[in-house]
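User: quick one, sequence for these C-alpha cells?
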C-alpha cells in the first residue's frame, strides 16, 4: 500500500484529545484516521447499494450508530 502525506486543519483541542486517545490505545493516529475514512466510505457504499436494491431514491436510509431501538 502506497501512503501519501497530507495536511488538514483540525480544532486544536480536538486534535490533542484524539492524539491522547490514540496513545492510550497504543495505535498510531494515522491508523485511526484511515479506519475512520474506510468506515465512512463503506457506509456510503452500503447506502448506495440499498438504494439500488430498493429501486428508487425515494427511500431514506438511516445507518447512524447512535440510533436507539
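Assistant:
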Amino acid at each position: 500500500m502506497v501512503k501519501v502525506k497530507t495536511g488538514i486543519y483540525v480544532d486544536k483541542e480536538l486534535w490533542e484529545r484524539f492524539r491522547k486517545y490514540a496513545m492510550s490505545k497504543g495505535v498510531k493516529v494515522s491508523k485511526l484516521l484511515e479506519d475512520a475514512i474506510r468506515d465512512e466510505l463503506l457506509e456510503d457504499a452500503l447506502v448506495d447499494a440499498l438504494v439500488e436494491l430498493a429501486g428508487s431514491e425515494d427511500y431514506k436510509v438511516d445507518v447512524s450508530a447512535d440510533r436507539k431501538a
